[in-house]
Amino acid sequence: MSFLRAFKPAPSLLSRPLITRHLSTTTRSLAAAGPKILLQDKENGFGFVRSNPRPPKPRRNGVTEIRGPYYSGWKFSVVMGKRYLSDILETMGYHIDGLKFAGGSFTLFPENELRELIELAHSHNVYVSTGGFMEHLLTHPDINTVADKYLQKCKDVGFDVVELSSGFLFLPPSDWLRLVDRVHSHNLQAKPELGIQFGAGGDTDTTALESTGTSSPTKVLQLGEKFVAAGVERIMIESEGITENVSAWRTDVIQSIMEGLPREKVMFEAADPKVFNYYVREFGVDVNLFVDHSQIVQLSCLRSGIWGMADTFGKVISFREAE
């Protein structure tokens, strides 16, 4: 499939207006960051307890993006409204950097309610990302017009980030880059999703995915390098084929990605406690992770070093001063 063959390249990223809200979250006042958490309050809280200090937002490392409406960690359907999201952000907002609407789920909302959810996230210094809905749009006949209308509306309702997935499509690398540039031309951040498993993202069972085979990790690294050069702030690594729907985890792929790409540019999908436990154990508290919203407390305890599984309890540490 070819994309945007007639698209005139947009101006250089350096010549465009700065994007005011990045994946590492908007720079806001300290007041907007919310009250100090008890674990950091040395005077009146639990600041006497040993823990790993987290850098303030906006963060480039140790970034946590949570999944919003679609399904929970147990694959039950979940609707996230303003009151539900408010509860999550009022209690755990300090630990959350980004909120992602899975797939095209956001198109099912009334516009005013969607805007309210996005603004609520922004008020807690949390960027908001679409899911990989562009993959559906790429099948439309007049893709140039459709892509522009989609991006214009995403910008209009307040999205900061547009995820670009192609788990079910064969898209040439040059077209991927044209698509990234098109997103950036609308003053949005492109977040490509890469993986080794064809058919990822469709909740297909393990047997069916294994029968289709996987691609080479080298392909992920080569395309990732091109995305970084194109100004992409962060690349999402799809879990299917690596730690999800596999008979054995492909830790070799994970190690290759961490060795071949800048770590602050990579985020791993890890919506399973055993999976994010592995990432923190192997790469430390600064690894960027995408989890379900139901898992934010467990992951934050793990990053802070105050809880863990048998192999990480009391062992997740850091050597740094609190910022």
Overview of this protein structure:
The chain has 323 residues and is of the alpha/beta class. The chain contains 10 helices and 10 strands. The protein has helices at 82-92, 111-123, 134-137, 143-157, 173-185, 206-212, 217-229, 251-260, 273-283, 296-304, and strands at 64-67, 70-71, 77-78, 98-100, 127-129, 161-164, 189-194, 235-237, 266-269, 288-292. Strand 2 and strand 3 (77-78) form a beta hairpin. The radius of gyration is 19 Å and the shape is globular. The protein starts with 63 loop residues before the first strand and ends in a 19-residue tail after the last helix.
Question: What structural keywords apply?
Answer:
single chain; 323 residues; alpha/beta; eight-stranded parallel sheet; two-stranded antiparallel ribbon; 10 helices; 33% helix
Walk across the major sheet and give the strand order.
5-4-1-10-9-8-7-6
What is the ordering of alpha helices and beta strands? Answer: EEEHEHEHHEHEHHEHEHEH
Low-confidence stretches: 6-20, 24-32, 72-76
- The number of distinct helices, counting runs of at least 4 residues, comes to 10
Helix content: 25-40%
Give the termini distance in whole angstroms. Answer: 47 Å
Give the averaged pLDDT, no decimals: 87
Radius of gyration: 19 Å
Residues in β-strands, percent: 5-15%
Which overall shape is indicated by the principal axes computed on the Cα atoms? globular
Major β-sheet, in short? 8 strands, parallel
Estimated structural class: alpha/beta
DSSP summary, beta strand count? 10
